[in-house]
Design goal:
InterPro entries: AB_hydrolase_1, AB_hydrolase_fold, Hydrolase_4, Meta-cleavage_hydrolase. There is one protein chain. With 245 residues, the chain is an alpha/beta fold. The chain has a single domain (2-244), classed as Alpha/Beta hydrolase fold, catalytic domain (Rossmann fold, 3-Layer(aba) Sandwich), CATH 3.40.50.1820. The chain is built from eleven helices and six strands. The protein is globular and about 45 Å long. It has a six-stranded parallel sheet with strand order 2-1-3-4-5-6, with helices on both faces.
């Protein structure tokens, strides 16, 4: 059995930080794979896909290169959650389980919940014209409660280092945004065992998105009372415990 971890918009596998090692220790008999989408991380020189379906095929292609073609569990956050749902819709026989973290999906969730309107001007200006430090500072502030801790500077230094080594290009940011905006999730829940996780204090995406999805799809939702959008960063132990249940 293989767990595949999928990150979100503009993020790469190194943004899992120590979570990957902690997750592996909790799942000692399962293989743990982290992937980058084209345009991110080690694949930063490639053009990002402009559809979620294409991202599914890219991820599957990477696994096939590792000779992994089934018995897969997906742990996915944000944009990665869209890829996970589309994967389950196309290839349910390949998947054993989905764990979706702070995912929002059209047409089930309105745009003003999928990205809080108060953030629009800052996100647009910073992502397209800001420096690497300004961009990473904004992402940390919007996605995690770690921005107010002693750990914040170390995190920022790490993230800026990633961005300098594998700089994401502005046109790839736009291509990933286009993919997210174009995607329409199925009316019915994926035909794969599904667990949804959400942070009650998500400053980027309204947690009502997860509540609505769980109700419509009649699936289990577990809400962390204090975490933000990047749940694996804010409380990795809590996330890992949910995957063991």
């Amino acid at each position: 059995m293989t767990w595949v971890l999928l990150r979100g918009l503009m993020r790469e596998q190194r943004h899992w930080g120590s979570f990957t090692q902690q997750f592996a220790q909790a799942h000692p008999h399962e293989r743990i794979i982290t992937l980058d989408f084209a345009g991110n991380g080690a694949l930063y020189q490639q053009a990002s896909a402009t559809s979620i379906g294409a991202m599914v095929e890219q991820a599957r292609g990477q696994l096939q290169q590792k000779q992994i073609e089934g018995n897969i569990k997906l742990l996915a956050i944000s944009l990665g959650g869209m890829v996970a749902v589309a994967w389950a819709e196309r290839y349910p026989h390949e998947l054993q389980r989905l764990v979706l973290i702070n995912t929002s999906l059209a047409p089930h969730n309105p745009f003003y919940q999928r990205l809080r309107p108060a953030n629009y001007p800052t996100i647009i200006s910073t992502m397209l014209t800001g420096t690497q430090r300004q961009r990473e500072q904004l992402i940390l502030r919007l996605t995690s409660h770690q921005s107010d801790t002693a750990n914040a500077e170390r995190l920022l230094d790490d993230w800026i280092s990633y961005a300098q080594q594998y700089p994401i290009r502005r046109h790839n940011i736009l291509r990933q945004l286009v993919a997210a905006m174009r995607y329409r999730a199925p009316a019915q829940a994926p035909q794969v065992p599904l667990l949804m996780l959400a942070g009650a204090k998500d400053a980027l995406v309204n947690p009502q998105c997860s509540t609505t999805l769980a109700t419509r799809w009649q699936t289990e939702l577990r809400i962390h009372p204090d975490a933000g959008h990047d749940l694996p960063l804010d409380d990795p132990d809590w996330v890992i415990r949910q995957t063991l249940g």
